[in-house]
């Protein structure tokens, strides 16, 4: 009896210690972790409140900025949920799928596979994409497994004790005062409205952005990376296989898809069809279909640059249009008819058009920097450029090129200011004129 009492006291002591540690960690987390702008925090809280989820979406920002469950719910008359998150790797998608499937009979899963995410092995060395998700998962063996297998022992403590990542702020009264001001309000405490500048959380995992390109002509100061020979990394393949196995073992239908991006980006990549072929090869024999909405025919989905908030993400208007088109295509008896066979075919069957331009510093030698203009066009041969600059602290504009075909120009390497490029397909008349502005 005495031994039993001794063991019971020890067990009680351990329980009390764990409870106190948990409480202290919770208080410290509240004081030093600024997650007042986190979308994942409210997304997961809302997911846990869902008694049923018929259709689940997984993926990175291309998922949660592109699919609006409110639109789908009305069309499909089902309960859909978007469990996307920023930089969500395939391991995060797998553990979120398990989390959502614990007490819910999910009927269908749509897995968004953005080429930049599934192609990066090195992204698995960074814990930030994991923390975005794990910080808001409820305590469970699933969360522990995620932290251990994706972060390992090096990041386990930081994953379990969130305040450890910001412990130095405990000694900054100004920081803590600011945190308390932002957290002690109804929106935060009740997991309600979250907004960041000109976008906001719109419910069920979807983020609506008011950002929009000023025109259908986009620009960039650098080129986009081409598709690599290993477009789907070894780590991504491992977890995509786990996702497929999880779904198929439970009778859940799974579909892979890619959300649309501006043609400006895809044309500059130059070999986007390579990614499509590699994804289809990876899925051969797995009984999983893949639809790339970058190949969608205009009669099913017709977007332009103003439907995007940047060179890869849809804005709210574009997302609602895409969601409706997605629902329609997925409801077709033969969805394949909505797509071109390749991106190359899409461009061949599309009219001549100027999508944008890239103005990149290609060389600096001594005190001179050389800039190269790359037009992003389809079926266009002749292009003329008018280029001017305005140096910082200079009120005057200086003409560098007056509607010529020459794509190269130089500027002083130690000078800062703005470059203005006017591009036209007609030398005489200069109509239409596309404009772009760059810092230098």
Q: What is the top-level CATH class of the largest domain?
A: Alpha Beta
Secondary structure class reads alpha/beta
As an assembly, this protein is single chain
Number of strands: 16
Poorly predicted regions: none
Give Rg in angstroms. 26 Å
Shape: globular
Domains (count): 2
How does the major sheet shape up? 5 strands, parallel
- Residue share in β-strands: 15-25%
- First and last CA, distance: 81 Å
The fourth-level CATH homologous superfamily of the largest domain is SGNH hydrolase
The CATH architecture of the largest domain can be given as 3-Layer(aba) Sandwich
Number of helices: 16
Strand order of the largest sheet: 2-1-3-8-9
| Overall mean pLDDT | 90
**How much helicity do the residues have?**
25-40%
The CATH topology annotation of the largest domain reads as: Rossmann fold
Summarize the structure.
This is SGNH/GDSL hydrolase family protein. This protein is α/β, with parallel strands linked by helices.
């Amino acid at each position: 009896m005495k031994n039993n009492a001794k063991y019971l006291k020890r067990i009680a002591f351990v329980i009390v210690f764990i409870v106190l540690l948990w409480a202290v960690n919770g208080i410290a987390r509240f004081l030093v972790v600024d997650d007042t702008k986190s979308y994942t925090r409210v997304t997961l809280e809302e997911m846990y409140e869902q008694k049923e989820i018929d259709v689940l979406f997984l993926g990175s920002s291309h998922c949660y900025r592109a699919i609006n469950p409110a639109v789908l719910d009305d069309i499909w008359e089902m309960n859909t949920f978007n469990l996307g998150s920023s930089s969500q790797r395939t391991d995060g998608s797998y553990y979120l799928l398990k989390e959502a499937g614990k007490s819910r009979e999910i009927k269908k899963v749509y897995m968004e596979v953005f080429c930049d995410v599934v192609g990066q092995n090195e992204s698995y060395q960074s814990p930030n994409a994991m923390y975005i998700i794990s910080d808001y998962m409820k305590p469970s063996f699933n969360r522990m497994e995620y932290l251990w297998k994706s972060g390992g022992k090096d990041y386990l403590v930081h994953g379990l004790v969130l305040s450890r990542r910001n412990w130095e702020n405990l000694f900054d009264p100004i920081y803590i005062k600011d945190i308390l001001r932002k957290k002690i309000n109804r929106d935060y405490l009740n997991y309600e409205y979250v907004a960041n500048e000109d976008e906001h959380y719109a419910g069920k995992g979807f983020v609506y952005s008011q950002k929009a390109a000023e025109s259908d002509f986009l620009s960039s100061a650098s080129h986009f990376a081409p598709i690599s020979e290993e477009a789907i990394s070894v780590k991504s393949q491992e977890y995509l296989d786990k996702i497929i196995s999880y779904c198929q073992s439970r009778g859940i239908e799974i579909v892979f898809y890619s959300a649309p991006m501006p043609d400006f980006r895809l044309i500059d990549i130059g070999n986007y069809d390579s990614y499509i072929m590699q994804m289809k090869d990876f899925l051969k024999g797995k009984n999983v279909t893949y639809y790339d909405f970058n190949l969608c025919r205009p009669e099913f989905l017709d977007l332009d640059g103003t439907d995007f908030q940047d060179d890869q993400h849809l804005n709210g208007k574009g997302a609602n249009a895409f969601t409706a088109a997605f629902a329609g295509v997925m409801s077709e008896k033969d969805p394949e008819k909505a797509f071109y066979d390749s991106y190359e075919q899409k461009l061949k069957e599309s009219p001549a058009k100027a999508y944008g331009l890239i103005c990149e510093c290609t060389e600096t030698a001594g005190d001179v920097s050389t800039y190269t203009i790359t037009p992003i066009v389809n079926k266009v041969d002749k292009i003329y450029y008018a280029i001017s600059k305005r140096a910082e602290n200079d009120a005057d504009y200086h003409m560098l090129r007056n509607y010529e075909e020459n794509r190269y120009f130089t500027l002083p390497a130690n000078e800062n200011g703005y470059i203005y490029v006017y591009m036209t397909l007609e030398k005489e008349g200069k109509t239409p004129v596309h404009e772009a502005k760059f810092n230098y």
